[in-house]
Amino acid sequence: MSGRAITRRVLVGMPAVAAGLASSRQVPLVLPVHRVMNRWARCTPQAYHAFWSRIWPEAAGNFGRGGIQLQCTDRQGEIRQMASGRPLFSGIERGVLNVVLTDQIPPYWDEARSLAGVSGFYGGYALCVIAINNAHDDRIPFVSTNTCVHEILHVLMQDVFVNRSKWYQSSEHELRVDWYATQLWLFGNGAAVRRSAEVSLRRLVAPVIV
């Protein structure tokens, strides 16, 4: 009698177990990331070491648990300044997510705020600029999350494709991104991010209309 009861419980639980196994075996979404190191960056040794030993590996791990694999290529590039003050990037590529690593955010965007990162769709390029000297790992859930995860999520959640966003919309995007970053960090929950990322990737490889 007890044996049959156990068997029934096992049988009832099998669909849930199967669903869990299917989820764990889900093929990861591959995100092509092109990392570009600004040759003129003046990063402190401590910040440089912390970035490569802790911050970036943590970001890759958070996305990995959420079913998103960062497939990285690397090269050196430059950040120059045009007469208008706008930054000019070399070494970035179309159709991928460019992560430009430097010591500080270009003044045109930073405005003396010592930002850790900025993201945008700039001249037809998906771009995240990370200030290694100010970047940090996960600190406070929903408030202060990994700099790289935060900025990459602005691209994956399609915030960078919104033109002329108002200041309150930008604030809303910041809060929303930290919420999703926390889901990845603490719970490995990347379902919503994956769905949006699939759309974002299609938009990245779409022809740029001038």
Give an overview of the whole structure.
This protein has helices at residues 2-24, 45-65, 107-110, 147-156, 167-187, 191-205; strands at 29-38, 68-81, 87-90, 97-102, 117-122, 125-131. With 210 residues, the protein is α/β, with parallel strands linked by helices. It has one domain (31-204): Collagenase (Catalytic Domain). Helix 4 packs across helix 5 (167-187). The longest helix has 23 residues, at 2-24. It starts with a helix and ends in a 5-residue tail after the last helix.
Tertiary shape = globular
What class would the helix/strand composition place it in? alpha/beta
Major sheet, described briefly? Answer: 6 strands, mixed
CATH architecture: 3-Layer(aba) Sandwich
Radius of gyration: 20 Å
Separate helix tally: 6
Unreliable residue stretches: 1-24
- Secondary-structure element sequence? HEHEEEHEEHHH
